[in-house]
Amino acid sequence: MRLTRQAEYAMRALLELARVPAGEVMETAVIARRQDIPKVFLKKTIQALARAGLVETKRGAGGGIRLLKPAGQITLADAITATEGNIAFNPCLGGGENCPNAPSCRIRSAIRRGQQAFMEEMRRESLAAIVSREKDEN
Predict the structure, then answer these.
(1) Fewer beta carbons below 10 Å: N end or C end of the chain?
(2) The model's pTM
């Protein structure tokens, strides 16, 4: 399983927003420049984050993007889910897939545990915690 570029861009964009004071907006162009993300792709990513209720966009003069929740309440899992939907390491774990081997499959439970561990780790990583570690390192 491999996360898409959009999931990576979403995490990086959210981190940029977490670095500004709460409630402040940041222009898409600034995020794109700082994170070296193509503007067109970033706009699509921001739309996905907005649909997920993670960011709000404001158009016009003084407009930009801002987090809708405190950075401590947004995790890397939120960014991944906003762009990827529900993660499935294997089609049989994604729901809707009817695998004839499911009743006797010996590896499905191990893959499920790995998938759960990955998402649990991503839920542990809040934007605020990452930004705090950055400050400690500098």
Answers:
(1) C
(2) 0.87
